[in-house]
Each structure stands twice: as C-alpha cells, then as structure tokens.
Amino acid sequence: MLKTRSFSPETLFSWHKPFGNDTTPVSVTPKPVFHRKKNNFRVRRNARNIKAISPILTPTPTTTPVETRTPQKVTAVVTVQKPGFLTNIRWSKVQDDLTEVFGRTLLLEFFSAELDPETGSEKETIKGYARRAGQDEDDNVKYEFAFVLPSEFGDIGAVRVVNEIHIEMYFKNIKVLDSSNGDVCLNMSCNSWVQSKFVSPEKRTFFTNKSYLPFETPSGLNKLRQDDLKAVRGNGEGERKSSERIYDYDVYNDIGDPDSPDTVRPVLGGNEHPYPRRCRTGRPKSTNDLSSETRSSSNYVPRDEAFSAVKQRTFYRKTAYSVLQVLLPILLREIRNGDVGFPNFTAIDTLYEQEDTEFTVQSNGIIGYLLIQLAKIILRFDIPEVVKRDYFSWFTDEEFSRETLAGLNPCSLQLVTDWPLRSKLDPEIYGSPESLITKKLVEQEIGGFMTLEEVMQNPSCIRSSQQGGGAEEEVTAGIRGGVGAATMMWQRRLGGGGRGGLDQGCDGGKREATVVVEGRVGEIRGLVVSGEADGLYMDGGGGGLQKAEGCDDEGVRQLGRNCRVEFYNQSLPRNMPQDLIRYFHHGHRLKRSNILNMQALEKKKLFMLDYNDLLLPYVNEIRELEGTTLYGSRTLFFLTEKGTLRPLAIELTRPPGNGKPQWKHVYRPCTDATGSWLWKLAKAQVLAQESGYHQLVSHWLRTHCAMEPYIIATNRQLSTMHPIYRLLHPHCRFTMEINALARQSLINAGGIIESSFSPGKYSMQLSSAVYELQWRFDQQALPADLIARGMAQEDPTSPHNLKLTIEDYPFANDGLILWDAINEWVTDYVKHYYPNESLVKSDQELHAWWKEIRTVGHEDKKEGWPTLKTPEDLIGILTTIIWVASGHHSAVNFGQYAYAGYFPNRPTIARNKMPNEDPSDEEWTSFLENPDGELLKCYPSQIQATQVMAVLDILSNHSPDEEYIGANISPSWEENLYIKSAFEVFKAKIELLGNTIDERNEDNSLKNRFGAGVVPYELLKPMSEKGVTGMGVPNSISI
Ligand SMILES: [Fe+2]
After folding, report:
1. In the annotation, is 724 catalytic?
2. Where would I find the PLAT domain in this sequence (predicted)?
C-alpha cells in the first residue's frame, strides 16, 4: 500500500540535492491544500472551519475524513480581465448587458476532487451563476457565486465554466472564499480565454493550483483530466479558428505560395527538407500544389498563445506596423529601381536621429513630396549602441573578432582541431578540397607570437604537409610537372626500419620529398598520406607497414595534383635541439615553415568561422539570383596573449559552375592599400554570411522554430495540472504567436529575410540543411554546445565543470551561470515531484510528451535524443528547453539592433562579388579608383537596409508586460512550500547574475567586454526595462 509522502527539514532545505529520496513513498491520498492570505498567513480547508496556520512549514497533516466535515458557506469569486473598448461596440452588447443584469453571465460548476467512496461515481456537482460584483483597482471585473459546500462534498478539485455572453472573456483566476471571514480557501489560476458558448459550446475546465502526476490525480478528476487533454488535441481535421485552443502539428507548407509563380517554395518538413513542425492551421490547400496551404493574412495560433493586449499594442506600435505593411511596399516601388545603394557613408548616417534621408522617389509633385516627408518622419532610427560608443568600431578587426565572442552571434566560432583545412565535399563537384590557408600563411600571420623554439619546447604534435598550387613552394616544386607522387621519409638516427619501409612503399621511382628527423624521436603514431598514393605506405612506428589512410583508388585519381603528407608525432622529447631536426627535399634543406608547427593548434589558439562546406552547395544557385552573391568561407582567428582574437585570414571559394572553374582566394589583414581594401570587402562578405547564419540558424532555427514542437507537445500531452506542464508553461509564452507572425512576413517567400539576406529565396532551404546536418537536441544544452565547438572541455576542477578554451568568452561565462541556476532550479523541482526513478518511468503523460517531441514535432531528426528514464534525464531535457527559450534566445535576439542596427557593422547581404574574382579591366579599375564605392555597392540597398533596421528594432524590443526569468513565481509554485523555497533560491541566483555581469563589465582585464568604445556584454543580464535595452532574459521567446 502506498503511504503518504513525508518531508523533513533536511529534505526541505537540502538545496541541490533531491527532495525526498528514492525510497520515499508517494501518496495517492489528496492532501489538504495550503493557501496564502494577504497577511502572509495561510489557511487550510478542514472539516469544520477555516484555520489560520503559521507560514512556517508544518508536517503534512492527514486529511480529515470527509464525513466529519460540516457544511460551509463559501463564495466563488471569478476575476475576469476588463473587455477592451472595441469589444463593446457590437450588436450583441444589449443582449449581454441584459444577461449581466439578470446575473447569468457565468455558469460555474464545481467538482469534488474525489469520487463517492460508496458508489465509485462522481459526486453531485455544485452549479450556479456568478453575478457581477464590481471591479478591482486594476479594472478587472469580479463575478461572485455564493453557495454552501456540503459536508460530504470534500475538497473542490475543479470548476467548469460556461461563458453565457457573446464575447470571449479572459479568466485570470477563480478563488473560493470563506463567506464568514473572507479567507481564501482555494485558488485556481486560470490566465486563459473562455469563449462564448455561442462560439464554442464545449465547457471549460480549470483545476486547482495543486499539481499532480497522473497516478496521483484525485479520483474525481481523472476523467476531467483526460477530457481536457482530448479537447486541446483536436481531431486533426478542419480549419482552425482563432477562438480555438487546439494544438496540432503540420509541416512548413505555407511559407511559399504555389499559386503565384514567383513564390513557389518547397515544403519544409519531411525527407527531402527535414524541419521541425509548426502549428497546424488546417487552411485550404493551394490550387497548384496540394501539399501546400494557401497563405493567409493571419495565421491561427491557439487562443491562449496570442499576444496579450499590452504586448499587441506595443508590438504594432513598435514595429511601426504601417512602415512594414503599408509604407515600405509603397517606398519599395517608388524608390528608384528598388535596389539603389547608399551613395556614401554620410547618406547612411542620415538615417539616424531625425536627419534627412537621401531617399529619392520616382513620383513628382505632391505624391512624391509627401512620400519623402513620410519617410523622413517614420524612418528615423536611434543610433545603435555599437556606433554610439565608437563610431569607427565597425571598421576595425578588433571589433570584427570581438563580436564572435560577445556580439550578436556568439555561438558559431569553433576551435580548429584538424589541419590542414580541407573540405569534405565531393571534389568532382566542388573542386579541390584543399584550403589555401596553409601552415606557411598561418605562421607568417602569427609570427612574433609563436616561434619554432616555442614549438620545440613542447612539440606534442608536428605535422608536415605539402600541397600543389603554390602553397608550399619548395615541396610543390618537387611534384609539379611530375606524376605528383610525394613521399615523406622518416628516419631514426639509431634505427632505419622506417626508411626501409617507406622506400619499399615508394616503389615506382616517383619524385621524393624527404624529411629526415634526426634524434630520438620516439614513436610515430601515424603518418597520413593523401595524394597520389599508389605506392605510399606508412610505418606506424611499430615496424609494420600499413597502407596509408586515403590511399584508396579514389584517392589516387583525385589527388594527383594535390598531395598531402601529414606526420604526427606525439612524443618528441621536449628538449630536443633544433639542429637535430632537418628537413630535406631532394637532398636540399627545406625552410622550416614547411614543417608546420601546430603548437597553435595544440595550445588551442586557432579558431574559425567555417561556412565553407555549408554554403558551397548553394553558391551557384544563389548567384543566379539578382542582386546577391555568395561564397564558401573560412575565417581564421588567433587567440592572442591578451585573450582577444585577431583575424588571420579569410578564404572565399566559388565552386566550379557555369563554365567556370573553382575560384578561391585567401585575404589577409594588409598594410598596402589594395590588399587592405580587399580585406575589408572580404570581411563584408563574411559578415553577410554571419548575418544570414545568425538569423536563420542561431536565432530562428535553434530557438523559435525548434521550440514550437515542445510547446505543442506540452499542451497536448501534459495536463494543465501536471507539474512539468506548470514548470514549462512560463517558457512557452507568446512563442507560437511570434512564430506565426514570422511565417507571415519574415521567413515567407518574398518576405524580409528573402529580400534582404544573401541566400535570398534559398534562405529557408539553407535553414533546413543546417537542421539536417548540424542540429541535435543533445547539443542545444550550453555546455554540450561549447564542448562540441571546442570552446570548452570537461574539467571537474573548473567552475561549472568546464574549462573554457578562451577564458574571456562573455557569452559562455555569463551563460554558464545562468545555465547552472536553471539546472539547479529544475533539479529541485523535478526531484520534488520525482524523488525516485520509478516515478519517471511510470509517468505515462511524461513519456507521451517526450515521444511526441521526438517522433512527431521533430520527426525528421532520428538522432541526438536523450533517453528519459531517470529524474536526471528529465532534468537535462528540461534545463535544455528552458535554456533555449530564455538564455540562448536572449543572447541572439536582444542585441540585434545594438549590433546590426548600423548595417555596415553587420550587413545582411553582399550584393557584389569580390573585385578580384575574375575581374574585367573595367571592374578592376573601378575598384582601384573608388574602393569605398565598391564596399557601398556590396552593402544592402537603401530599402533592404531600412527594412532590416526596422525589423531589428522591433525584434530587440521588450514589451512592458515582459516576464523575466526568475522574476515572478507562478501561483502553483507559491502554494507548495518546497517549490516556493526552491524558486526563491533560484531568484536570488538570477539577481546575483545581474550583479556579476555588471562587475565583469567593469573589469579591465576582460578585454572582450571592457575597453574604450566597447559595448559591455549585457545580453544575459536577466532584468531589463521595457524597450530596446540590449539586456534582459525573458522566460520565453516572445519576440
Ligand atoms: Fe527572437
């Protein structure tokens, strides 16, 4: 027999440890509900009266037998949000007024928590109309229903309501008061819309604030629990109406419009274009493609997911809705050609702070004049923080690098772990996979930071590579014109087995490049040869010959002109004299740069933004679009002694296509004028790619889009009385609505993303490709994300159990504090409700929820899902979801205007190719004569820039009713002393994080967040004022 769960002070105040223990039995007996009075005394419903009890924890009282109770006079008070002004302008108002006069606005029906113990059936319910009883200080309308609670009724478990008037009503809460003294006996938080019975005849059920796992559900509520879940799942048929609360799934089949030739887009979701699911709307299919839905001016979301009135007002005012929906399309047509760039940087500056713009319109006379004046009035932007603090920062390499760690997209940078850099794409299609960023180039760039002497002090890894195409001059000479064979000889001074082996492998008399390392070099762990490897073998150090990696037939054919030899040695002695290492080629000594000391790799000092393999497959298609261009790109950074990054090189690659061969070029920071301008232009190309990746992946895909299936599953599979539903609910607020708005005007065909970002109409396909190639649930956790990118490694001795590769990495440093705080709060919460593993295993709703997320909401992703068997599994899953909704989203969202509002700092599109890519004489001359003009031509057009600026301003904005993480306790948490206390600890940690961030931003040693003109890193500072503040971590993705 199950016993009542008991608690002790030890378990109550044992934070970070499970509440209870694995052997703690769990009660199936309903316990008295604790409530909170305004005077901080709680009251509890018992048999004979309402008693005030101390707020200090007392042992859980046993339930008083129902039969000993006496009838009790109580009053139910329903608090409803005051209807908006517009809802009063309607023909049915007179009818509703009459209904109210007769006191029949709301019909309430109370359910006992328990079944009749004798008959096993539901006890008789208590029904009655609630009369209007006035308004409170916040203008909420109160309705009251007084009744007698019979002694045999027991505890109230739920209430069902019928809205008898013609307009929907927003229920805030329902309280049951003791009529004799006004004490609160029962509290039901509703925060939900109840539709008119004339619109939705189904009755609506609200449960008490006490949370129950499925098997704990009081007997009288089981059916109501199931019925309510069925109601929100719907039947998957028909078109959804805005008044409904049905949560269901569909693919992204409404971002294009197959009925219009220019806006045909593939359906996202399914084998061809894997993607998360979105909310099903059930709109009619399009005429030309039955797999797509017709588009609509408004997308359905369940009623409770829609913006609040305050949020809606703020959103549309802030968005300058008219700008997006009315003015800009007009301007788009009127502005000359629609694709005019900015004539000079002064013209860009005039966009800000009420200065005159340089817009020119086609229309003459009064219309043209009015359009210009309108544009001047509306198109005024605040000066973004990044240029407010330092007008020239956008131009500098320092800021370019710093923003990879502390800017708008701090989650793309990765540690370089493999060398040489090499594409994994098919060379037959994309050309040579070898990067032109060679060891020689890197060593030239890091000269002065790393020397060969340093190398030899701790040469735990030495590699040598030789490559065709001029990258390694000496070695290349050996293979040019020949058959391309390259061999590396390794010889021990006191042993010769290696040489013999290699000689044997080089059978065929091909040209040789020879490296002789004299001395006790220890064991060679591996020799990797790729290239014309027909006869190449390696000596793995043990004397036996192995065919070298990459030496299959395919390799022989493909790599004849591009040979590579890599030589790993894991155990060279630290004090080996340099002169014992000699490098020979055909008997001639080689420059030492041909042996790339990858100390920089070993010391974890090389980092990269790698958009090469991701973007190359799209380059040719995107280049066929008008007004945009694209390259595959690699941007290499070096971590300096100051802990800041310095860019070393940018490689841009165009794959073969349209009759042209592969083209690639490496740009470097330069001291000559031409090289310097090319470097700036290359940075603009990379920044445009960064902007696209940020918006389509780091922001949209990883937060907004990935989150929607979690929200749908949470509503469909977890009852509103389930503790995990109540934990997650604050983190779901408004996400579906903002996503629906995004499908309308941001990510749709011809929307702002397509029209203003480099990938154009392929934008969402690119997002789908990343979902397929990169996205995994188990790497959305911040620690896992950092480890996967090589930005951290596990270390039990470090804070957060992670050693950061770059110590001053503001996103990671602040994010990990937030991550840990969330994790500890979730741990306390989960372990309270699931003190042992068996409770997780037996929770059917929980398993249905997790299964639906994996197999329906994210059905295209088969890997990367943790199992859900233990409380620890659940804690990991929930912490990840909450982190994504709060910390991750805030880090990539609320800095959008601060960093990208001045578009030269983060252009969203590169409209022109590099001037040195197959230039005509005229193009090259134009570049030489007017290089800044080339940059302006590459930047977004006027209309693109202003559209994006307006959108970023909107997306960076906090609504006045924003709910920040750790700020407000939910009513159901507040009524549980354990949860309440755990939340207070969480709240304290969150407040402390704000202080810590302030301190860090004043720390002179943290160069990536402090310095002259540097924007302090505040994106993970939890609280914020309303507006565009560049800080604040809301609970949910609400913008
Ligand atoms: Fe967002």
Report:
1. no
2. 85-208
The Å distance, Cα 704 to ligand 1 centre, comes to 7
Q: Which position among 699, 722, 858, 958 bears the catalytic label?
A: 699
Tell me the DSSP string of 325-382.
IIIHHHHHHHBTTTT---SSHHHHHTTBTTPPP---BS--HHHHHHHHHHHHHH--BP
* Alpha-carbon span 471 to 437, nearest angstrom: 8
Is-catalytic flag, 729? no
Catalytic-labelled residue, pool 704, 800, 832, 858? 704
Name the amino acid, one letter, at 896: Q
pLDDT tens digit sequence for 159-213:
999 999 889 999 999 999 999 999 999 999 999 999 999 998 889 999 999 999 9
pLDDT for position 985: 98
Please tell me the distance from the alpha carbon of residue 704 to that of residue 701, in angstroms, as a whole number.
6
Q: Is there a catalytic annotation at residue 748?
A: no
Q: Which residues contact 674 (CB under 8 A, 6 or more apart)?
A: 928
Please report which helix (H) or strand (E) contains residue 703, including its range: none
User: Is residue 889 among the annotated active site residues?
Assistant: yes
| Catalytic entry in 893, 905, 957, 1001 | 893
- Lowest mean pLDDT segment, chosen from 313-327, 340-354, 408-422, 748-762: 313-327
Q: Which one-letter DSSP state was computed for residue 902?
A: S
Backbone angles phi, psi at 105, to 5 degrees: -70, -40
Q: For this structure, is 1039 an active site residue?
A: yes
Token reading at 528: 């990797």
With CA atoms as reference, report the closest residue to 255 among 628, 762, 908. Answer: 762
Task: Give me the mean pLDDT over the 978-1002 stretch.
Answer: 97
CA of 610 to the centre of ligand 1 (A): 24
> 747 CA to middle of ligand 1, Å?
13
Residue percentage of the chain with pLDDT more than 70: 73
Tell me the pTM. 0.80
